[in-house]
Amino acid sequence: MNRDFSAAKRIVVKVGTSALTYETGKLNLHRIDRLSRDLCDLKNRGMEVVLVSSGAIAAGVNRLHLQSKPDSISGRQAMACVGQSALMEIYNKCFADYGYNAGQLLLTKDVLDNGDRQRNFKNTIEELLKFNVIPVINENDSISVEEIKFGDNDNLSSLVARLIEADLLILLSDIDGVYDKNPKEFSDAKLVDTVDDFSAQITSQKDAKPSALGTGGIVTKISACVNAAKCGIDAVVANSNNFNVIYEVLEGKKVGTYFVGKK
Asked: What is the value of pTM for the model shown?
């Protein structure tokens, strides 16, 4: 199936912790800067861009020079308190270098479960976009507890895309896309190019574990993309290691896995 995103004007880009850090756990500043530049370039094209960014806990671990993130929820919340401001410092600087401003929104699940708060959230996003600000959204890890956590920013980004009626959702991670089976276990695993039958069971890497610094996985990416596509939003899972990946997605090149939005 041909990919045609030429009419996409409003785009939600989600970037995971694994895409923002090196294997050492340190922040990959080069990638953050490149991502920021690309998003600002899309703004120059006339597009509306919303960024859903993980990485607060990893940034906190970095800022406090820890070897790994704490095991306890309260410890991770503390890391998020330190790291969210550190992460926004970087985004603010990078966006400003390319002529734009960032606007931070931190969410908990109860906010988007409430009709009035949903409307307030959407109104805020619309105003930020009118002012040419790039909204940067993350789960409010500093106050979230296990019972109300989104658990990952994949499903958060999908929910955001649906609420603001985005045209395209791009999930960037350290994987090439969705495979028909776990590529770490099966050498003959094949990358799934297109998903348009949501009744079919996509097994792929069902047992894939989250990374040491991240919380998501391929299962949450599949869920997020299917939920967006069912609402008419095209979605693509692609590898952030390809520095041109956002442009290649928008140009309709066959990168990653494309979930066809039901129009």
From this structure: 0.91
